[in-house]
Amino acid sequence: MTASPPIHRLSWLAVPPATAAAAQASAAVRALGRLAPTTAVGIAGVLLWATSLGDIRVDSLGDYGLPPALPVRWYAGLALVVVGYAAALCQRRPSPWLLAGFLTATVVILYGTVPLCTDVPHYPWVYKHIGVVRYIDVHGSIDPGIDIYHRWPGFFAVAALFGQLAGQRNPVTYAAWAEVFFPLVQAGIVAATARTLTGRARTAATAAFLFVITNWVGQSYFAPQAFGLTMGLGLYLVALRFLTGPRSSHLAGTPPGPARRAAITIICVLQAAVVVSHQLTPYLLVAGMGALSAAGYVRPRWLTAVLAGLTLAWLVPNLGYVQHTFGLLSGTNPVANATNAHVHEFSPLPGKIFNARAGYALTVSVGLLAVIGAWRDLRRGNRVAGIPLLLAVVPVGIVFAQNYGGEASLRVVLFALPFAAVLGALALEPTGGVWRLRQAPRVSAVTGALVAMFLPAFTGQEEINIMTPDTVRAADYFDAHAEAGSVLLLAGPDFPLRYGPRYPEFRGPSSDDDPNLLHTAGFRHRQLGAADLDGVVAVLRQYSTHGYLAFTTSQEVYAEVFGLAPPGALGSLEQAVARSPRFQAFFTSPTARIYSYQAGR
Amino acid sequence: MIEPRRRCAVDCALLALAALTLLMALSGTHSPVRAVLAVLAAALLPGAAALTTLRLDDALTWLAVTVSVSLAMLTLLAVVTVEVGWWNPTALLLCLGLASGGVLAWDLRRALGELSATAPDRRREHERHHEHGQRREHGQRHEHERRQG
What is the extent of the structural domain holding B56? Predict the structure, then answer.
């Protein structure tokens, strides 16, 4: 007797096409009905958030930054989106479109609120990147003698190219939106990686959501590291998808030769692009791929050597410059490297301490969630956690070699977070592996707590990060009209330095916020006035015989919240400068003034 | 991507995106629409063209890899031209757009070919469904008549 095939395998043959179409349509209607309440929650959340934007005032923020200035409707909108996301995730049959919609809404709410409420990009340090792009746009070339950006020009050259395509040659018009673009793309890659590792769509969606709501370090703005990380995450995804090793054969499986060769080519292209764009990321990718290869998760082994070769090939011609200007390694003491020495010179207001602690608490929470996820995966006997665990641990190696200008710990968080989020998603999976709507409160509670820590950590410094259009105009005016060979001395930190294409024509150190008076010990922690003018001129003349002195409202706020100078100190110094015959008004606006100084006047 | 019908749809959409972006860039239009189109074109076109030979059946992975590869290709092209002093963004973008468009058009042609090659199979399948349905209906009617006596 021959065994007949099971009926369910052939049942589709018995269904005429018209009936199948009708069944599909009816299933779609049922799905719509099932998802309608969750969709309505999401739409209500987005509407509440959108209508709250008009009520946000960013011009008088205190030391707690943006959170106290956000209206109740803003918080209600965000809460609805977070709860709606958990509900969409815990549906018996979740809709990928709905999850993608919630993820996008969360990114726009968390990262898009500031760009929507301000006229120019926030973060004063973003303007030096804009300056390099404008230089390339104007000159059509780079000059490695200018600064390190001209030696790793990938990101800036692409931005200049994009400016031509978009008809926006000055990135100031779109740079703020990089902070929405990069997290969105990176979240997509994190989701794809989690899906490749686990094969589970819900885990992928959870990983992407966790990544978005915990990425508090503010490194996703218009900068080479965000760009490098995006391509680096893509590199890992291609490796895990196509170059599986003996210990990862449970993943997609090794495809036939041509696809494997294509994947290797793509990985080399991605690494080459990262190598020319960012100084740190390629080393982390080499370390990550080396670790994956050594653990047997990725093959061929020689690929790591090729990636290392590409990295060193770009470093060697720049080695002398790096060694001379920054030093290749800043020390092997991880505690010293992970600490920002400058911070200890400040006596910040309570709001700043609270925001910093919220960031630390969030990092610890994500770390704990990742450990729980790895442990649960181990207990279940799955083989998923090994890869993200390796890739989350590798970036910690930075603090054993580099201080990275006091930002080493931020970079560790930035590069470890995508994989910690994948592990965190494993921690949030239900015990039996079956998702039900009744699990939504648990997911909402965890994600809600993370969002509560994210908000002060990420937006708690906006009182100094947000630039006024006047300040940016002042920087632009200086670039267009100041004398070549002069120096722009800042009264305090927080000014968009090196914003224009002429920035190499001016003198002064290339570090952020320099030269500035409050970095000089003699000007800190006391009232300033006419008696300090000789000191101001002396600082200015360290760099040039003619120069400019900039005062802005944001500098006063910075000095106050970090306790660098008593209230009114910079104001009284400016009054003395304005009255002095040695200085002349060069640019004047309500929130930014620049005075020019000429020796012998 | 594997499924030819989906490939056709994606290729058509990308070709339309390339044409629109190029049109707006060449006409010198300054609008947010152009900026949005430019973001989409820069993030998708070069990568999508490069990945036509790689089998990526999962849409999310395809999108993630496409964006990464697009950014990487643009970076390398921009760096090479700026390093060697051949910086000419208009020519570079035009060449890249035409090359990407050409590869996508070739892929579209291939996908259409695969679709038409499998069309007789699909027609036969459809006819088989139809015949099977009729036969079953006929059998049920016959059975019904037999029972009726």
Answer: 4-122
